[in-house]
Amino acid sequence: MDLNFSPEENAFRAEIRSWLAEHLNGEFAHIRGLGGTGEQLEGFEERIKWEQFLGQSGWAAIGWPKAFGGRGASLMEQVIFAEEYARAGAPGRLTHIGLELAAPTIMAFGSDEQKARFLPKIRDAEELWCQGFSEPGAGSDLSNIRTKARREGDEWVIEGQKIWTSHAQHSDWCFLLCRTEEGSRNHKGLSFLLVPMDQPGIDVRPIKQLTGDAEFNEVFFDGARTKADLVVGGEGNGWKVAMATLTFERGVSTLAQQANFRNELDEIIALAKANDTAKDPIIRQRLAEAEMGLRVQRYNALRTLTNAESGTFSREGYIAKIFWASWHRELGKLAMDIMGPEAELISQDHDYKMKRLQNLFLFSRSDTIYAGTNQVQRNIIAERALMMPKEPRGA
């Protein structure tokens, strides 16, 4: 892994830095910093305009192959973009699920018709996507899915429920993992469907979180329909396609996440200096540990991605989720300790809106639960990375 940048990569960094500085000080200056941790719906409509502007300007999908409307950027260029985007204070992305999950899945497994229909609108933020995977009783154990789809003529008819569906209330489409083979169990008999959200038979119910936000939703399917040819990867191959989708989720987007972690840690350090808590040796030690943990995340992510780019499987990738989730949860605690008594107060101004670091603390409680709990992650590390005996499972 070479962490030095070539002259061409440094030129690319200068290009994106200049572009962001120009446009985030102009028409979009008012959305700087919006959409941080625990504030995912903040300034939603204005941030959608920003996403569309990114698409029109050629910066939305830089990692996509040029054949699909991207820039074909290298791994290091994508890392540079993520770092500069965060450093510029650009708003949190609203198109992650479409750009980083739906689109790569369609590129890898979709038909030519599906690629032509969906990829341009994902790139240009003309259509937003949500992910229909988790269900009550089928979260970490995803193979326990019960949502069903039956074939009626040239359509699929869907019955069931999904939960923790981010941005479902604003989405145009959902990629849905459901059971299409009657009587099938576990990972067999599943299919990966593309389903329009604006139709009778779909009921979206937002779930209010501790932060007051409602990013997550319950989604009920009661006779919802989608076309028969909107199955990705072939009927019955949903588990294979879904596992590939989850692999894309662990890709370069992790570097963008870490760049935002950098901003959060810098804000906490600045506060510690301002209110003199940085003089406390225990607080200083915790800040140092947070800094070291963030650097470990970066180097491990770069190592994993570099190996993947060369076609080498890296077992180190298995530790990424449990590491960053636990680190971020501790960062939330550190933020509250540095804020002191102020951490327990909510301003009456602006409709009792909490401060950014308060939202960080509350939202980070969920980091060790979603996308695979810490307990599940430990099992994965033990069984797949360390090759230990598998945990006994019921029949």
UniProtKB/TrEMBL annotation:
The keyword Oxidoreductase applies. Residues 236-385 form the Acyl-CoA dehydrogenase/oxidase C-terminal domain. Gene3D superfamilies: Acyl-CoA dehydrogenase/oxidase, N-terminal domain (1.10.540.10), Butyryl-CoA Dehydrogenase, subunit A, domain 2 (2.40.110.10), Butyryl-CoA Dehydrogenase, subunit A, domain 3 (1.20.140.10). It holds the Pfam family Acyl-CoA_dh_M. It comes from the Bacteria. Keywords: FAD, Flavoprotein, Oxidoreductase. Residues 130-222 form the Acyl-CoA oxidase/dehydrogenase middle domain. InterPro entries: Acyl-CoA_Oxase/DH_mid-dom, Acyl-CoA_Oxase/DH_mid-dom_sf, AcylCo_DH-like_C, AcylCo_DH/oxidase_C, AcylCoA_DH/ox_N, AcylCoA_DH/ox_N_sf, AcylCoA_DH/oxidase_NM_dom_sf, Mycobact_Acyl-CoA_DH. GO terms for cellular component: plasma membrane. Residues 6-124 form the Acyl-CoA dehydrogenase/oxidase N-terminal domain. PANTHER family: ACYL-COA DEHYDROGENASE, ACYL-COA DEHYDROGENASE FADE29. This is Acyl-CoA dehydrogenase. It comes from Emcibacter nanhaiensis.
